[in-house]
Amino acid sequence: MTSAPPPSSKPFTLYTSKLCPYAHRTELALHESQQFDNVELVQIDLLKPREAWYLEKINSVGKVPALEVSEHKTIIPESLVIANYVAESYPESGLLPNDPLERARVRYVIERAAQLIGPHYPAALLKRDEESLNGLYTSLEELEKLFNSISTTGPFIFGEKLSLADIAVAPFLARILATTDEDLGIVPAGLISPPIPERMQKQLPRLKNFFDAMKSRPSWASTFDEDFVRKMSKQAFLARAKA
């Protein structure tokens, strides 16, 4: 795409990428709020420099996602800002509790999960060594403890009901599992044993049940393409290795 897409007749236009966990958050929020049919999706290739029209008209820093709200001719950047806007605009979704204290708990989990996973996941893929991969797994162990401290039964973070916290965390867990599988070739075989996906299946039952519950939702099937994520992650890794 060398020029901006034509204006959409739909209420929303989401500039997104199937590769990006941040963009995935916003797609899940829109789907769970029954707004996915009201969104025009514009896929942005993250493996190429952003084109001029995107930098000039959508997001000057070049990031995805960005949500264009047609009625107000407004563009909202940043995944959590978009997800909160959607949840608050469509409260019937139940993604955010009505009680301010419960909302604060949801937002804390989102922040804490980002603190745990944020530094370790990119480091593990960039360094591809035993220390960084074990550091990533340790962050998942801490996430398991966090989830159990809130609800031991789940399947979602706060129990039986889906919240914005689930939507914020699951896309990152999905990509960790998809890209640390030794069969993909990013992580060298035998570097840590068992590999992270197998460890989670056997040793982190709360995270496993959580992820299984997320995968069972129609919103997940509509928004996550594991084969694409694996293929493009491998392509990005190979390009980085040659640089």
Automatic annotation (TrEMBL):
One of its GO terms (cellular component) is cytoplasm. GO terms for molecular function: glutathione dehydrogenase (ascorbate) activity; glutathione transferase activity. InterPro entries: Glutathione-S-Trfase_C-like (IPR010987), Glutathione-S-Trfase_C_sf (IPR036282), Glutathione_S-Trfase (IPR040079), Glutathione_S-Trfase_N (IPR004045), GST_omega (IPR005442), GST_Omega/HSP26 (IPR050983), Thioredoxin-like_sf (IPR036249). Pfam families: GST_C_2 (PF13410), GST_N_2 (PF13409). Keywords: Oxidoreductase. The keyword Oxidoreductase applies. Gene3D superfamilies: 1.20.1050.10, Glutaredoxin (3.40.30.10). This is GST N-terminal domain-containing protein. It comes from Tilletia indica. The lineage of its organism: Eukaryota, Fungi, Dikarya, Basidiomycota, Ustilaginomycotina.
